Amino acid sequence: MFKKSRRQFIAASAKTAAVTAVAGLGATGAKAAANNNPKVFVHHVYFWLKNPDNQEDKAKLLAGLKTLSTVKTIRQCHVGVPSSTNRDVIDRSYSVSWLLFFKDKADQDSYQVDPIHLNFVKECSQLWTKVIVYDSEDI
């Protein structure tokens, strides 16, 4: 789960979306597909390291995220670093991103108080200067 490259993650996500779409578009059409697809809660966290060039600090954060990936309510996770893409709308100022998928908000709420998550914050929070979180729910 944790060891997927960004390219593998995107390819797997695209395949899953395509299979879900094709399976859901039977005789009842797109409306039925929308009603049958489970909703997802997305939790995306961006970390700015205090010492962004320090590889030891980055390694500690990545090790902490690997441990954090064992929380039972996480459906899927991805860890990444800024891409080399360069357009005006792209923010590459962060050090590490942490993308999580949950079944619903309740599972994400459970993750927030999970002892593994609380320990991660305790052990790793001294590594970063800033964290921004974007949560979204299916509509």
Automatic annotation (TrEMBL):
Keyword Endoplasmic reticulum: no
Ranges for domain Stress-response A/B barrel: 41-136
One Pfam family of this chain: Dabb
Stretch forming the signal peptide: 1-32
Source superkingdom: Bacteria
Transmembrane segments: none
InterPro entries linked to this entry: Dabb, Dimeric_a/b-barrel, TAT_signal
Keywords: Signal
Residues forming coiled coils: none
PROSITE patterns per record: S_R_A_B_BARREL, TAT
Protein name per its UniProtKB record: Dabb family protein
Organism: Deminuibacter soli
